């Protein structure tokens, strides 16, 4: 089974005091450390597990500059056979443009399955995978937590709301966005990453793709990014339960909540 897995390098924002950048449309990323997007890490592991079980090869793809090649090397250290980096230059991309660019490159690859992460850790968008499937004309499913191939179709397990799971059949080729927990990503050693440097890493310039200015025009434009205003601390209400309930109702009523 030939598999394409799309990955992204994202900043680590946990336990960090974020700062808004100079133009007020994003976060200052210069002091932040970067890692592979968590959901994408599971997608890479699933692709490699399927290759080990069924044969074929795995191609990892990302859009980014030279610094983003580190996650491609990581993917190859995990077991991907080759990698492709699409250099965007100075082009500003939203989810639509990212999916359009990825689709143009993936069209030229022989594949049975395309995997993405459910969403991106930096902007919390979960759009690229589904948009990519539409551009490629593929059957698709999101929030996938299980996959079993059976000829030209597969049985998939999907996480729904409220802790409910759904089991479905899907025709191949298809695109799946992978949820965390579908597997346990393997440890990647420094030696493994060094060995991965010997594997094929192709670089494609955005300008070399047959895409028009309309294709590369963002559909979503960020106007402003700001930190939420600081508010007062929690109000502690003590006393008899009935009196506490009356006080809560009073407070909610004053704030315009119908109770």
TrEMBL record:
CDD domains: ETF_beta. The keyword Transport applies. Coiled coil: none annotated. Pfam families: ETF. Keywords: Electron transport, Transport. Residues 24-213 form the Electron transfer flavoprotein alpha/beta-subunit N-terminal domain. Gene3D superfamilies: HUPs (3.40.50.620). InterPro entries: ETF_a/b_N, ETF_b, ETF_beta_N, Rossmann-like_a/b/a_fold. One of its GO terms (molecular function) is electron transfer activity. Belongs to the ETF beta-subunit/FixA family. This is Electron transfer flavoprotein subunit beta.
């Amino acid at each position: 089974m030939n598999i394409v897995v799309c990955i992204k390098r994202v900043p680590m924002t946990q336990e960090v005091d974020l700062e808004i950048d100079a133009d007020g449309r994003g976060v200052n990323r210069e002091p932040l450390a970067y890692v592979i997007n968590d959901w994408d890490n599971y997608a890479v592991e699933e692709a490699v597990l399927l290759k080990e079980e069924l044969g074929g090869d795995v191609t990892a793809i990302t859009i980014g500059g030279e610094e983003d090649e580190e996650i491609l090397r990581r993917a190859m250290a995990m077991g991907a056979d080759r990698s492709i980096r699409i250099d965007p230059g100075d082009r500003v991309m939203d989810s639509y443009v990212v999916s359009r660019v990825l689709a143009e490159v993936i069209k030229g690859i022989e594949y049975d399955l395309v995997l993405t992460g459910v969403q991106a850790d930096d902007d919390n968008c979960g759009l690229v995978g589904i948009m990519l499937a539409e551009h490629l004309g593929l059957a698709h499913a999101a929030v996938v937590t299980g996959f079993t191939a059976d000829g030209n179709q597969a049985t998939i397990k999907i996480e729904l709301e409220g802790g409910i799971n759904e089991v479905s059949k899907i025709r191949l080729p298809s695109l799946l966005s992978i949820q965390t927990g579908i597997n346990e990503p393997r440890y990647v050693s420094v030696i493994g990453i060094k060995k991965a440097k010997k594997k094929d890493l192709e670089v494609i310039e955005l300008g070399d793709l047959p895409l028009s200015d309309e294709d590369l025009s963002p559909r979503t434009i960020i106007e402003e990014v700001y930190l939420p205003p600081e508010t007062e601390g929690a109000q502690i209400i003590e006393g008899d339960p009935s009196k506490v309930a009356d006080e809560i109702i009073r407070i909610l009523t004053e704030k315009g909540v119908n109770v």
